[in-house]
Amino acid sequence: MALDILAQGKLVKQPEQRTASNGRPYALAQLAVAMDDGDVLASCIAFRSEAVDAMMALGKGDVCSVAGRGKVSTWTNRDGETKPSLSITVDAVLTAYHVRRKRAAVQGDDREPDDSTRAPRPDRAAAARPASRRPVPVGAGIADMPDDDPFGP
């Protein structure tokens, strides 16, 4: 039985790219997922090209979230203790870079998140919206929010 999994953790070693017998690349990674009783080791394999590319762009120690189909099992360590494990067939990978990029796109800033040298392009659609409907910048405090109620009359 496969479960729908969304897991976040830290890569414990550098992801590996291999080639299947049909010539298509796939990626392998191990993710330490924090749980109440300690970390659970998740073995990840990605076949979709987008997931393979995203996984291979990461390195040991990077934090990411993976979504896909998973299976829970157990393994025995050197001390004879039984530990839980997770095997995930990854469909999508999400990193902090993806979040910054998506946030910039939603806010109408089409620059790359780390590209501070280019001037931002004007967002004509945002300028045409009334002030009460413009997005509030991420990290804005209560004092920075619009005064009018968007759900009111």
Architecture overview:
By secondary structure, the chain is α+β, with helices and mostly antiparallel strands. It folds into two domains: 3-93, OB fold (Dihydrolipoamide Acetyltransferase, E2P), CATH 2.40.50; 98-135, no CATH class. It is 16% helix and 39% strand. The protein contains three helices and six strands. The chain has a five-stranded mixed barrel with strand order 1-3-4-6-5. β3 and β4 (38-46) form a beta hairpin. The chain is globular, with a radius of gyration of 21 Å.
Structure described in brief:
This protein is an alpha+beta fold and about 150 residues long.
CATH superfamily of the largest domain: Nucleic acid-binding proteins
Order of helices and strands: EEEEHEEHH
The low-confidence parts are 115-122, 136-145
The number of distinct structural domains comes to: 2
CATH top level of the largest domain is Mainly Beta
